[in-house]
Amino acid sequence: MCLSVPSKVVEIHDDASVTVDTLGVRRRVSSHLMTEPLTEGDFVLIHIGFVMNKIDEKDAQQSLDLYQDIVEKMQLESE
């Protein structure tokens, strides 16, 4: 099973790639597999360097909040 953290598109490039922000980490990924256009501010899911699909901002935020809760609980357990 693969888990994908929602990423926010922060820059569109001419070569069908986009720069995304994933929990503060920026990286450039391919959007060649997308059939619909992406715009800055869209939330997407990525698998092995390719944007697989666009997701709703509300759903993305719920997932990001859940990931943050998990990280906080893991930090408390390690203290």
Automatic annotation (TrEMBL):
The lineage of its organism: Bacteria, Pseudomonadati, Pseudomonadota, Gammaproteobacteria, Alteromonadales. Pfam families: HupF_HypC. NCBIfam families: hypC_hupF (TIGR00074). It comes from the Bacteria. InterPro entries: Hydrogenase_HupF/HypC. This is HypC/HybG/HupF family hydrogenase formation chaperone. SUPFAM superfamilies: HupF/HypC-like. Belongs to the HupF/HypC family.
